[in-house]
Amino acid sequence: MQLLNNIYAGYRASAKGLVRGNEVAPALVAIKDHLPAFFHDQILATGRDDANYRCYGGFGEVNRNFAHIPWVACCRRNIARKVQDGYFVVLLFRQDMAGCWLSLNQGFTQYKEAFVDDQLARQQSRAGAQTLVRMIVPPEGFVIGPIDLGATSSLGRGYEAGAVISRYYAAGDPEIEQPRVEDDFRRLLALYDDLAARAGNRVIALLPDEDEPYQAAAAEIARKPAKIPQLPQGPLPPPERQAGNARGGWRRDPGVAAAALHAADSRCEWNRDHETFIARRSRRNFVEAHHLIPVRMQANYPHRLDVAENVVSLCPTCHRKVHHGLGRERTEMAVAFFRRRQLLLAARGIHATEQDVRAIYRHELDDE
To answer: Cys-Cys with 258: which of 222, 284, 301, 338 at CB 3.0–4.6 Å?
Structure first.
C-alpha cells in the first residue's frame, strides 16, 4: 500500500529536530492527512455516521521531538475522544519502520494515571486487553495480546502491552495491498462498535479488583502526594456498579487508599511500632489498606464506602489478623478502629453501629 510505503521510506529522515506543525514531507503528510482520510472513507463506505468517529494521526507535539512511534487512530467519540483514553482502532508504526500494526488498542495514559508506576500500569493494561478480548470473537489472521513495536519509550511500551487484537504489515511485503488493509480495518471497526455497546467507555472499571495491584498502586500514589485525588467533603453517592466484578460489583479506588496511607505516614494504625520492610516501589515502610466496612457491603449503604475515612493502614501481619485471626481478636481490632472513626464515618453518611461492626467481623473476611 503506497501510503504505508511512503512512511516506511521517509519517516526517519523527515522526523528530525522539533515538530514545527507545518511539515510537508510525504511521510509526515501521509500520517497527518492521508491515512486519517483513508480511515474516514472506510467509515463512510460502511454506511456509518462519520460524526460518531474522530480519525487523526500524530507524530509528536509542536515544539517537541518527533515521536519514535507515529500513529493514526480512529476513535469513537463516546469511547475515546483521543488516544490517551478508552480504546480505539489504531495504526502503529514500529520504531525501526520495519512494519506497522493495525490494532484494537487502549490509551496508556488512563492506566498511568490510575496506577502511576509504569510497570504496574502496563500489567493492568494487559489485564484490560484480556478483559476486552473475552467479549469478542477475534477474526482469523489477527494476533491476540501484546505486540512488538521495538519501543524504547514508556508510551510505546504501553501500546505494546495494551493491544487487544492486531494484524502486522511488514514493510516491503507485496501482499499488503489497499483492499486487504481496507478489509482488516472494517473488521476491526465492526468489533470496535460491538465492544462499545458491551464494554462501555471505562475499561479500568471492568478489571478484576485484585489485591496485589490495588495495594501496589495505593503505595505508589501515596508517595506522591500531588497524585492523591481529593474527594469532595460530605456523603458521596456510590460509584457505578459493575456486573460480574468482585466485591458484589464494587471496585476500590487505589487513590482513596493512598490518601489513608499517606495520612497514617505509612505506619500500622494498630501499632505504630510495627516495622515491616522498605517497599521497592514506594521506598516507604510497607503497609496495606483495609476497608473497615468492606466495600462488598456497599449495597447496604446509601453512600460511598470507598472513602479514606473508611480505610485503615495496617502492617501485613495485622491486616491478615483482622481478616483471619481469632474471632474475638478480629472484633477487638475492628471495634477499636470504629470507635476512632465513627464521627468521621458519619460525616460521610456511613451510619454504622458498633453492633454492625461486630456482626461483620464475627466471621473471617474475604481477602481484599
So the answer is: 222
